[in-house]
Design a protein that fits this description.
Elements (H helix, E strand, L loop, with lengths): L3 E6 L2 E9 L5 E3 L4 H5 L19 E4 L4 E4 L2 E2 H7 L2 H10 L5 H12 L8 H6 L7 H15 L9 H27 L12 H10 L10 H14 L6 H10 L5 H13 L6 H14 L4 H9 L20 H17 L4 H15 L1 H5 L6 H11 L7 H22 L26
Helix pairs in contact: 2-9, 3-18, 4-7, 6-7, 6-11, 7-8, 7-18, 9-14, 9-17, 9-18, 10-11, 10-18, 11-18, 12-15, 12-17, 14-17
Bound molecules: s-citryldethia Coenzyme A.
Length: 427
């Protein structure tokens, strides 16, 4: 492989260096393109554009490979736990037992959220979507923790990581408690991180919440599977906002807003709503496949397709297996799971989906497990955000430590040429 790419414009040749990553991915470094040629590239949605080099996550969309810091998602989902994977993503190595214990204890130092934050949540209507409330509360954390994150100071950075991991989980569950008109719960520092999520969500003043290890294990695995996914829409947003040196909370808040979209993290809620609609309409999955294929119909088969995976999404395979196990263990016979499997089977045999390499993605089965665990549909994307939090933190930290420049894409102007101002009376 040559280490130079040659571009010819108007008969003149220009050379640009080629970058090869540790997994042999190839990029053309066009840092000098505009200054040398006057031209820029055009790549709506950045399908062909790399924004950075990164040591955090590697994925191969053709082969269906996903690794965090070199460890396969299959290994981590089976053998690790969410807090350990969070440590791995953020600090780069699997922690020793004492390091993980310290990390968990340091997170516990910051699980109290300023009581005045309750005034903010009280300002929302009961039926406000939890993702909108979460984005606002996350940004509001900046007001109570104004010290901007000085990334060159390891201590400050570590404190910001632990604060974010501790407080985000609590305020995420407050969005549900607000919705239900329940009192807001506090983190219990004697219990584990994922177990706390279920307690924060469902414990009522009338009695203690009884944890089910099957539920905790399933959630832990789901959070691992959502923890990072290189430069997806919401992570790129976190990097972009952080590149202006906005703080960690403000950057994460922007990531929450990006994740909310139904084309991205909001798809897990949209999948369940689609499956329930199919169920309500007699379970006729083929009608929805036809709608998804009809170019006149804006309907897309939610939970199918992916910007990068043009083969199976390895996470979907793991989640589908977990869905069977969790529902069997909990004794849940959910007809929606049957509809999902029929929909998948029909789509994977259908020329339209096959020819476009459309496979189930991470969102297709996750909602079915969340529903079996008693999580309300409107909270599905909030759970995606809880899982993705360590990835957002890790990517933000890497971008700041690497002193990456402020993000500022160019454009090609196609509007009106110069024209003189026209007075109102002459228009
Ligand atoms: C996530 O990027 C990440 O890593 C994201 C994520 C992460 O972990 O962060 O993996 C999480 O966001 C998963 C994706 C969740 N979204 C959905 O499930 C929504 C439904 N999927 C689609 O909207 C779509 O597949 C996207 C947005 C996910 C991907 O869009 P692309 O790659 O831009 O695909 P495209 O728009 O170029 O489509 C190519 C063709 C088009 O048809 P033609 O113009 O060639 O005729 O495939 C069609 C599309 O119309 N198509 C679909 C479809 N997805 C693509 N047709 C029907 N149903 C679909 N779901």
């Amino acid at each position: 492989m040559s280490n130079i790419a040659v571009l010819e414009i108007d008969g003149k040749k220009y050379e640009f260096p080629i970058i090869v990553g540790s997994e042999n991915e190839v990029a053309i470094d066009i840092d000098k393109l505009r200054s040398e040629t006057g031209a820029i590239t055009m790549d709506p949605g950045y399908k062909n554009s790399g924004s950075c080099t990164s040591e955090i996550t590697f994925l191969d969309g053709e082969e269906g490979i996903l690794r965090y810091r070199g460890y396969s998602i299959e290994d981590l989902a089976e053998k690790s736990n969410f807090l350990e994977v969070s440590y791995l993503l953020i600090f780069g190595e699997l922690p020793k037992a004492a390091e993980l214990e310290k990390f968990e204890n340091d997170i516990r130092k910051y699980t109290l959220v300023n009581e005045e934050m309750k005034n903010i949540i009280d300002g929302f209507p009961k039926n406000a979507h939890p993702m909108g409330v979460l984005a606002s509360l996350t940004s509001a954390l900046t007001a109570f923790n104004p010290k901007s994150v000085n990334v060159t100071n390891e201590k400050d950075m570590y404190e910001a990581v632990c604060k974010t991991m501790g407080k985000f989980l609590v305020i995420a569950t407050w969005t549900y408690r607000k919705n239900m008109g329940f009192p807001l719960n506090y983190y219990d520092n004697t219990k584990g991180y994922v177990e706390n999520f279920m307690r924060l969500m469902f414990e009522l003043p009338t009695g203690p919440y009884k944890s089910n290890p099957v539920v905790i294990n399933a959630l832990d695995k789901l959070f691992i599977l959502h923890a990072d996914h290189e430069q997806n829409c919401s992570t790129s947003t976190v990097r972009m906002v952080g590149s202006s040196h906005a703080g960690l909370f403000a950057s994460i808040s922007a990531g929450v807003s990006a994740l909310w979209g139904p084309l991205h993290g909001g798809a897990n809620q949209a999948v369940l709503e689609m499956l329930e609609e199919i169920q309500a309409n007699g379970g006729d999955a083929d009608k929805y496949l036809a709608k998804a294929k009809d170019k006149e119909d804006p309907f897309r088969l939610m939970g199918f397709g992916h910007r990068v995976y043009k083969n199976f999404d390895p996470r979907a395979k793991i989640i589908k297996k977990a869905a069977d196990e969790v529902l069997a263990t909990l004794g849940v016979d959910d007809p929606v799971l049957t509809i999902a499997k029929k929909l998948e089977e029909s789509a994977l045999q259908d020329e339209y989906f096959k020819s476009r390499n459309l496979y189930p993605n991470v969102d297709f089965y996750s909602g079915i497990i969340y529903r079996a665990l008693g999580i309300p549909t409107e909270m599905f994307t909030v759970l995606f955000a809880i899982g993705r939090l360590p990835g957002w933190i890790a990517q933000w930290k890497e971008m700041r430590i690497n002193k990456e420049p402020i993000g500022r894409p160019r454009q090609i102007y196609t509007g009106a040429p110069l024209r003189p101002f026209v007075k109102t009376e002459d228009r």
